[in-house]
Amino acid sequence: MVYEFDWKLRAADTDFSRRVYTPAVLDYTVRAINQLMEDIDHSAYQIQQQDGLLYPIAHAEVEYLEAILVGDLVTISLSHTIGGSSITFEAVGRRDGVDVFEAEVVVVFVDDSDGSSVPVPEEVRTRLDSGDF
C-alpha cells in the first residue's frame, strides 16, 4: 500500500533562488514517515515509551528530478520494504502528477538501552503490510 502526505513549499524551505533548500526534501520525507508511523500508533515517542525501542535513520538519499518552487504543493507517496530489523521507505514527490524527487530512507529498530538492533516489531510489520493507516 502507498501512504500519501501533502507538503506545500514555504519560503522558509527555499534558498535565495526560491527553489527548495536541498535538506528540506529529506526533512519532509522524514515528516511523512513520522506521520505514517504515528497513524499506525507507533510514533517514535510511543514506541520508545511502550517498547523501549528507537528507529533512527541509517541511510538516506534523494534524487532531484525537477525544481520545486515556493507555493508548490507536493504529494509525497511512501511505499516500504520490511527487512529483519529495518524498514526501507521509498518516497516519490509529485507536483501536478509530475515526479519532482525520489528518496530512500532506511530506519533500523534498536534497543534504547544498548543500541543493539532488534527485529521490526510484529505489530508494526502487520500494520504497515495491511495498509491499515
What report would you give on this structure?
The chain has 133 residues and is of the alpha+beta class. It contains three helices and seven strands, in the order E-H-H-E-E-E-E-E-E-H. Strands 1-4-5-6-3 form a five-stranded antiparallel β-sheet, with helices on one face. The chain has a two-stranded antiparallel ribbon with strand order 2-7. A hairpin with a 2-residue loop joins strand 5 (86-95) and strand 6 (98-108). The protein is elongated. It starts with a strand and ends with a helix. The mean pLDDT is 95.
Quick synopsis:
The chain is of the alpha+beta class and 133 residues long. Helices cover 26% and strands 37% of the residues. The relative contact order is 0.23.
Task: List its traits.
133 residues, alpha+beta, five-stranded antiparallel sheet, two-stranded antiparallel ribbon, 26% helix, 37% strand, elongated
Which sequence of SSEs, written as H and E, runs from N to C? EHHEEEEEEH
Distance between the termini: 9 Å
Instruction: Report on the biggest sheet.
Output: 5 strands, antiparallel
Structural class of the secondary elements? alpha+beta
Q: Percent helix among the residues?
A: 25-40%
Strand order of the largest sheet: 1-4-5-6-3
Strands, count: 7
* Average of pLDDT: 95
Radius of gyration: 15 Å
Number of helices: 3
